[in-house]
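Q: Okay, next protein. This is LysR family transcriptional regulator from Photobacterium alginatilyticum. I've checked the sequence twice, so it should be correct. Can you predict the 3D structure?
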Amino acid sequence: MNTSDLELFIRTADCGSITAAAGLLDTSPAAASAALKRLEKQLGVELFIRSTRQLRITAEGERFLLHCRQAIESLEYAKASLVEMQGEIAGEIRMSVSSDLGRNMLLPLLDDVMDSNPELSVQLSLGDSLADFYMDRVDVALRYGQPEDSSMVAFQLIDVDRIACASPEYLERHGTPQTPEELLQHNCLLYRLGDQIFNQWEFTNKGTGNSEPITKKVKVSSNRICNDGDIVRRWVVSGKGIALKSRLDMFADLKAGRVVEVMPGFRAKSTSLWLICPSRKQVTPAVLLLRDRLREKFKALLGSEQSLLP
């Protein structure tokens, strides 16, 4: 019983299709079907009920699937442990990252880590939708916001504030808002995740003297909405409007003067950046190295940006 047959079985169960699983594993549907039949013969049970319209996993297949996942995870963890004993970081990290952070911040850091560890390889998936660790074959995800699933292993990397920002050219043409209410007179570039459009922005003023901070919410409008955070960033830089973005995502643009922060007297609700694994078995030496390097890099960047604050 070889591991490639087990991987094929897992992917077929996840996809509900032999053809789809074969495509993901870069093999032909005919070869995939033959491999599944070979596995069923070795086990002496049917793993799937096949019909012309659908493929359905059997009760025996469901039970075997659980053990298969654990077996593959254990093998990968064992390989990583052997490498660690030799004093090297090796193996493969399958990583999901939001589009903005991945393109503009993570790539140079990954290059640095991989140059220092030539036996390490990375499969990178960019996209703002939440990763499905099994369907997408992802070991680790880098995302803003603490995960709600308590069964996952999550490492908090850094707290990040969010800022309202715009290009100097846009502000010269349309004026600079001083309060959240004034945002209603501006084109506010919006981000969409799934069916949710993030058009309600919340700010808290810093308070003066003995006065308590006051929180204000405004429902902004826009002629541009996108489900890709990097597109929203590009719209800001090109002078199309005002956006509410992570300071980390806008770091290079702030430093270069392509965008500036507006309404410095008001603070938006902050967020946090997390490195997430589906289980402890995915927490390999390579993942721990990546976690530590990310923490160092992001803290250094945000620390250096204090000089950019208004």
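A: Here is a summary of the prediction. Residues 59-85 form the longest helix (27 residues). The chain has three domains: 3-69, 88-158+273-308, 162-269.
Q: Noted. On to the next one.
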